[in-house]
Amino acid sequence: MTPVKTxxxxxxxxxxxxxxxxxxxxxxTGKGFVDTDSIIEERMGxxxxxxxxxxxxRYFRGLERDIxxxxxxxxxxxxxxxxxxxxxxxxxxxxxxxxxxxxLKVSPEEAVRRSKESLEExxxxxxxxxxxxxxxxxxxxxxxxxxxxxxxxxxxxPEELAKQIANDFKDKTQTNSSLQNPGx
Length: 184
Ligand code: S3P
Known about the structure:
binds shikimate-3-phosphate, 8 helices, globular, Rossmann fold
């Protein structure tokens, strides 16, 4: 019997809305919230840009891997992954054990527009849609491989997206449990 999953996982490109939607989802569902980037920053006492420039991306990916392992061992949480976390197949394997994975899709133009104010926080993000598109294309397969469900986010409000995901998660997990417990 497959156990019912209790975690909602958000993956996707930078500025696809993972953190914002994740926070709302956590309120809507009553689940705890884990944002992998924020935990890394708290534990290191450094922001992501400093970690990249002083310790390097490889080091950052190691920290990210540790947080993913920890979060994957928890139940009943919403997890907002950093944009590159699903490039490591081990992260995907772990996160899927207890989580249904939602890919938040964003166009390169919208990603650049949304990150205008936060370029300082994102070492891999520039202000040109062409560059975002190149990185997005290179990652597309990994994002799709990780995802159970793909959600388009352009022109949609975070509240609307969170409701859609909460409903989808409920449908999927309720169906599972009633199939597993047909007598209930
Ligand atoms: C990254 C995305 C960032 C952060 C780091 C690397 C990436 O997270 O983890 O800057 O490789 O796409 P957000 O997607 O929350 O911006």
